[in-house]
Specification:
Length: 477
């Protein structure tokens, strides 16, 4: 056993050598069937066989290359930690392909799963079965895009250490038309978000607070009144909502924290109700919680997305649970807790100020999620309007949303923006009552779409769906 100790015949104690761990980069590809599911299965198989997937790139949809008469590919890359030598790693990857039923019709033709070793430490390998670095990296945008997410500042060819991965990508004239876009899966019954596709449509997420104390709609929805709940959900969907975000714990400042049992008692009936009564409608269900146990139970009941206002920081089990569930998670920017966040809204100029602070802290939350096993393509971001941001700071975030989208380490990820009825709108418009902040909210929703938001989270679904439709017509074409 690796790392064990054994007695020699002379009575001396020696330590057995622990197998050395190596870092390698694996290309992931599929263009048959449920392409993202095949890639996720392959990653799970690698983990199960001791080839630990430590980080993943985004997934990119690309046109076929070489053999053009085939479906589009989903391509990505992953960083792995392995004790296997290069040829043994190749054997393991090919065995995974075979175990997943890979059928290779023709060379470079359709396949349900394709796993290739791109890089292995600093080695150069020239073998009949294996070439490292993989031949053709420098000419393939669909390989360089994901690889540059993982190692932008490392060389591909260690005989040319001055040329970095991003240099190869920058030197490559874009060949894809339209340009490559990332893919963020939401559920088996709804298309992924394509966050870099200019003509994508913005999702309208309807807020369904099952709480008595939320800041603008507390007590309006209760699990015991199934008829009223059905009417509300039907109205949301008829008005244009594609997502429903169900919450059972208020995150308003100074709201009392309820037990996990109480939160579940509020959330689960609503999740089950939607799945039972709206099975024919492709509605996406999000659970608004920072508790791992609630997230797990809600996903088991039929939720598709976990929406965590703490970005996985308030419950240490949240990110590992999201990784185990394999669900998409929205990581929101917040400092502290809902009880302390308003005292933590200082963003020092010498540290870059507000936008740099949000970006830097979200990069850290993405890294924490990846370290816990969450795939990068399963991450959505939220700048956290109203959370550790006061008054004009929220307006500044809306002004600079596109800057956040293009921040190093955050590029290609989709964004959710939740501005609906919040107090900063009331301060600007002079409207003290949250329910009457429709027009101010409308302006913020339009700004969010212009800034590149993929999802807007709203209370007034009918009105904001119309705003989104018009904003999409102006900016998404």
């Amino acid at each position: 056993m690796a790392g064990a100790r054994e007695e020699t015949t002379a009575g001396a104690v020696t330590a057995l050598a622990t197998p050395r761990k190596h870092t390698a980069y694996i290309a992931l590809g599929s263009n048959m069937g449920d392409r993202i599911t095949w890639i996720e299965k392959a990653c799970s198989e690698m983990d199960a066989r001791g080839i630990k997937v430590t980080r993943t790139s985004s997934l990119w949809e690309t046109e076929p290359m070489y053999v053009l008469d085939q479906d589009r590919f989903i391509n990505g890359a992953c960083e792995v930690e392995t004790t296997l030598e290069p040829l043994a790693l190749l054997d393991a990857l090919q065995d995974i392909e075979n175990s997943l039923g890979r059928k290779k019709v023709i060379d470079k033709g359709p396949r349900n799963i394709d796993l290739d070793i791109l890089l292995y430490e600093n080695l150069s390998v020239d073998h009949d079965r294996l070439k490292i670095p993989h031949i053709g990296i420098a000419e393939r945008e669909f390989v360089l895009k994901p690889l540059a997410e993982l190692i932008p500042d490392k060389p591909i060819d260690h005989t040319r250490p001055w040329t970095l991965t991003r240099d190869y990508l920058d030197a490559l004239a874009p060949v894809a038309d339209p340009a490559l876009t990332t893919m963020t899966p939401l559920s088996a019954h709804h298309p992924p978000i394509q966050a870099l596709k200019p003509s994508r449509k913005t999702h309208v997420m309807a807020i369904l607070n099952m709480t008595p104390d939320s800041f603008s709609d507390g007590g309006q929805h209760v699990a015991v009144d199934e008829s009223a709940l059905l009417s509300t959900i039907t109205a949301f969907l008829d008005a244009g909502a594609t997502m429903i975000d169900i919450g059972g714990q208020s995150t308003a400042p100074n709201a009392p924290e309820v037990s996990a049992e109480e939160e579940l008692a509020r959330v689960l009936p609503a999740v089950r109700l939607i799945r039972r009564h709206f099975a024919e409608r492709p509605v996406l269900i999000s659970v608004d919680t920072y508790r791992a146990s609630v997230a797990a139970a809600a996903v088991a009941a039929g939720a598709d997305i976990v929406n965590d206002v703490s970005g996985g920081s308030m419950d240490p089990d949240m990110l590992p649970t999201a990784a185990q569930l394999g669900t998409t998670i929205c990581l929101m920017h917040m400092r502290g807790t809902p009880a302390t966040m308003n005292s933590l809204a200082s963003y020092l100029p010498e540290q870059g100020g507000l936008i740099a602070g949000i970006a830097r802290e979200l990069v850290a939350r993405v890294a924490a999620a990846e370290a816990a096993g969450v795939r990068r393509w399963r991450i959505v971001l939220d700048p956290g309007l109203g959370f550790a941001k006061l008054g004009p700071q929220n307006v500044d975030v809306l002004r600079h949303l596109d800057e956040l989208r293009h921040w190093p380490g955050l590029q290609g990820l989709p964004w959710l923006v939740g501005s609906s009825r919040k107090s900063f709108i009331g301060r600007v418009t002079g409207v003290p009552t949250p329910q009457e902040r429709i027009w101010g909210t409308a302006a913020t929703v339009a700004a969010a779409v212009q800034g590149g938001a993929d999802v807007v989270r709203v209370h007034d679904v009918r009105e904001m769906a119309q705003v989104v439709a018009m904003a999409d017509a102006i900016w998404r074409y």
